[in-house]
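Students often ask why inverse folding is considered easier than folding. One informal answer: many sequences map to the same fold, so there is more than one right answer. In these notes we will look at a single instance of the problem. The structure comes first.
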């Protein structure tokens, strides 16, 4: 799958405007970042977005109310990205809703196209520093993803997940699993 020409034009306009305000300090930077994102992001509620956040294909991104997105976060909206209300995203997280196909070993990877699937963070999810969430994943309501985890599969509601690849090690409010405190 190649990107349509309109996507390149829209991205060029977005990156030009967002690039002008991306690293401005608060309070001026916060307001200007919000204005630019409001123009391009599919749906955006009330939130706090820190400087240095990168957004690809903002028209595919939906951000709920009372969301915090910290420095150095990468949001890929090509396949769709939905962040529910009250989510917290620590610095250095990546949400990657597309990847390259590589099934045919006789064809260069870059010519095989891409596949995309939506990422969904339900309400009240907390992603620790450096979490990577891959395409097609849903993280259930109230879940906590530990720093450095790589999420490649759906995470049930109220789970505590960690590791590479991420696995559920506990349920919030229940007896700990594998010695992990909840």
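Output (designed amino acids):
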């Amino acid at each position: 799958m190649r990107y349509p020409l309109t996507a390149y034009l829209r991205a060029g306009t977005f990156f030009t405007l967002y690039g002008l305000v991306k690293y401005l300090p608060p309070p001026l930077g916060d307001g200007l970042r919000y204005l630019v994102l409001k123009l391009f992001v599919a749906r955006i509620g009330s939130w706090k977005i820190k400087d240095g956040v990168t957004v690809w294909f903002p028209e595919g991104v939906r951000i709920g109310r009372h969301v915090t997105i910290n420095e150095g976060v990468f949001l890929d909206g090509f396949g769709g990205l939905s962040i529910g209300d009250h989510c917290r995203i620590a610095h250095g997280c990546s949400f990657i809703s597309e990847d390259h196909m590589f099934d045919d070993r006789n064809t260069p990877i870059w010519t095989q196209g891409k596949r995309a699937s939506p990422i969904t963070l339900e309400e009240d999810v907390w992603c620790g520093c450096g979490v990577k969430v891959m395409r097609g994943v849903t993280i259930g309501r109230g879940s906590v993803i530990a720093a450095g985890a790589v999420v490649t599969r759906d995470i049930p509601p109220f789970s505590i997940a960690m590791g590479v690849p991420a696995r559920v090690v506990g349920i919030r409010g229940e007896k700990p699993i594998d010695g992990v405190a909840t």
